[in-house]
Specification:
With 368 residues, the protein is an alpha+beta fold. The chain has helices at 166-183, 194-217, 227-266, 287-292, 298-301, 324-327, 343-367; strands at 2-13, 27-29, 42-45, 47-52, 60-64, 69-80, 93-102, 132-146, 150-163, 312-317, 331-336. Strands 1, 2, 4, 5 and 6 form a five-stranded antiparallel β-sheet that branches. A four-stranded antiparallel β-sheet has the order 3-7-9-8, with no helix packed on it.
Length: 368
């Protein structure tokens, strides 16, 4: 609904009120004379509440001209119903109308029309609303039919309201976008940092839920989907998918490490050369250091808790390793570098931002 305060002015001619005068151009009376003469019985259709201002007296003015023309003016505040469509909320424009009609007289008894068309509406240029921008006013008129009483003239004051978007950008769209971008930070965090990635994902999901709850509490309760609902729930899905992405990464990493552990237990040596030794290096050893460590096994050199921080090197040498300085290193060296980034994380760094940007382009092109 909407509330409007207006000066409602009626013009008609009643020859019974004409008077001869050469000095007075008109005579003005207050509301006391209104009850003694005929006045149009105009009412507001679909009004919920309306009243005539009465401070300090009734805000009614009656002006009679010598030829019988009458000006009847009153100051009224009316709250009327407006059929609004919130499917594009908050990027919507609403068209509302204030309807005036005679209550008792049909079109055969009383004809209502605008005196000067659209020029009949005079608005204050300083009018401003907190949520809407008043774009235009215009007038129309048509006949309304009631099955039991007949046809009536009905006048319309139509005005278009466009909602201000900046408030919703600050309170809804920007926070939701920032939460989605924050969820992408987990793609750059080491996949073994389980507490960091899990806590970041859960925090963004809970924050998005809070934003959706807060926005819905202040929005009109309608049964259909609004434009802001689409944006918020798509953003929530992106945040939720980032949590599922790490769950998939963690699961695949666990499965991969389990398979590699079984392979190492089944094949402790990586080559078929007899009398070979297996050890672990951190990548900083020279050939002489490797020869000096040829008698140590991997378990003897590196504690169990430091295995994941080292670069695993399976080094197999023949018994003639002492002659390797002359003939070069004979043997097969196999390296396996434990990477900190999973392939899913690499793809997610591109897929998630690209998809979200594409969604924003479609969303703002459709609803703006």
């Amino acid at each position: 609904d909407f509330t409007m305060t207006l000066y409602l002015r009626h013009y008609w001619r009643d020859e019974r009120l004409s008077f001869p005068s050469t000095t007075n151009k008109s005579m003005t009376f207050d509301g006391r004379l209104v009850k003694k003469i005929w006045v149009p019985d105009v009412f507001f259709v679909h009004s919920k509440r309306s009243f005539i201002h009465d401070t300090t007296t009734d805000n009614i003015m009656l002006r009679v001209f010598p030829d019988g023309h009458v000006l009847y003016s009153m100051r009224i505040t009316v709250t009327a119903m407006c059929n609004m469509d919130f499917s594009r909320f908050p990027l919507d424009s609403q068209t509302c109308s204030l309807e005036l009609e005679s209550y008792a007289y049909t079109d055969e008894d009383l004809m209502l029309y605008w005196k000067n068309g659209n020029e009949s509406l005079k608005t204050d240029e300083k009018i401003s609303l907190s949520q809407f921008l008043i774009q235009k006013f215009h007038t129309t008129s048509r006949l309304a039919f009631y099955s039991s009483t007949g046809w009536y003239n009905r006048l319309y004051i139509n005005f278009t309201l466009r909602r201000h978007i900046f408030f919703f950008l600050l309170q809804t769209y920007f926070p939701a976008t920032l939460m989605v971008m924050l969820s992408w930070v987990s793609f750059w965090i080491d996949r073994r940092a389980v507490p960091a990635r899990v806590s970041l994902g859960i925090t963004t999901v809970l924050t998005m839920s809070t934003i959706i709850t807060g926005v819905n509490a202040s929005m009109p309760r309608v049964s259909y989907i609004k434009a802001v609902d689409i944006y918020l729930w798509v953003s929530f899905v992106f945040v939720f998918l980032s949590v599922l992405e790490y769950a998939a990464v963690n699961y695949l990493t666990t499965v991969q490490e389990r398979k590699e552990r079984k392979l190492r237990e089944r094949f402790p040596c990586t080559c078929g050369i007899s009398n070979s030794k297996t050890m672990m290096l951190d990548g900083n050893y020279s050939e002489s250091d490797a020869n000096s460590l040829a008698g140590y096994t991997r378990n003897q050199m590196v504690p169990e808790e430091e295995k994941q921080e080292k670069m695993v090197v399976h080094l197999a040498m023949s018994n003639e390793s002492n002659l390797s300085r002359k003939r070069g290193l004979k043997g097969h060296v196999g390296l396996r570098i434990v990477q900190n980034t999973h392939a899913i994380d690499k793809y997610s760094r591109l897929i998630f931002p690209g998809t979200y940007i594409f969604f924003n382009l479609i969303y703002w092109s459709v609803f703006s």
